[in-house]
Amino acid sequence: MADSLLSWSTLITLSGAAMITFLIVLYTDKLVDSWWKWGTDLYAAAWAFIILVIANIATGGDCKDWRLYCLAFFNSFLVAASAGKLRDKSIAEDEKKKQRNAQKINESGEPVITEEGESV
User: Does the pTM exceed 0.90?
Assistant: First the structure.
């Protein structure tokens, strides 16, 4: 699988683990909102822990070694923080786009319809 987008060695890196954590949290957050009461940050850290443990074991880590789980636990908070920054960046870019669209008003003063069909 040399041409795959993700590999186990990619998932061990901060950027790879943060990206997959960001995507999993993005797509599953609404599903667990009703029963997960500890916030999105801890939800992301939990996913990051799972991803790091699986990736470490898949790349030859000893599943019986307690250090693997301890290090994955600590690193999961770094990964979750990086995934949170990815989310913040995507929201900030969306807000900038909305502000640019709000500033586009034609000469007659009528609102401009955006690509999404929203009136600004």
Answer: no
